[in-house]
Model the fold of this input.
Amino acid sequence: MAVNNNYKKIGSIPRLKRAVIVSLNGLKEAWKGEEAFRQEVCVAVIFVPLAFFVPVSLALQLLLAGSLFLVLAVELLNSAIEAAIDLMTEEEHPLAKNAKDMGSAAVLICLILVVLVWSAVLVSCVMDRVS
Done:
């Protein structure tokens, strides 16, 4: 299969425009086809703005919001891994299973990170109020 890399030969602004379009298409496809991504976006839509109402430094607010964006990014990578494997083979193969399981584990680690970051920031916020 021939790969079209002509976009790499165009100037900076048209290339940037093309990259944005391709990225938006990826987000649109993830939204249409990935239930987990839709759920995580819904959580992010609530909690990202909420992060900026937590009475902590801007750096901690960005950490709270950033942890949620990390989940979305890793979910997109996990979905891409799954799609690539599904394109290559419909057979069940131990390596394909391992790749899919590892992608899922990466999402789980990010979700654990969100819980840890939000818990630590909120507990420290409460402790500051108490003392």
Q: What stands out?
A: The chain has a mean pLDDT of 93. The chain has four helices and no strands. The domain at 35-130 is CATH 1.10.287.3610 (Helix Hairpins). The two ends are 65 Å apart (CA to CA).
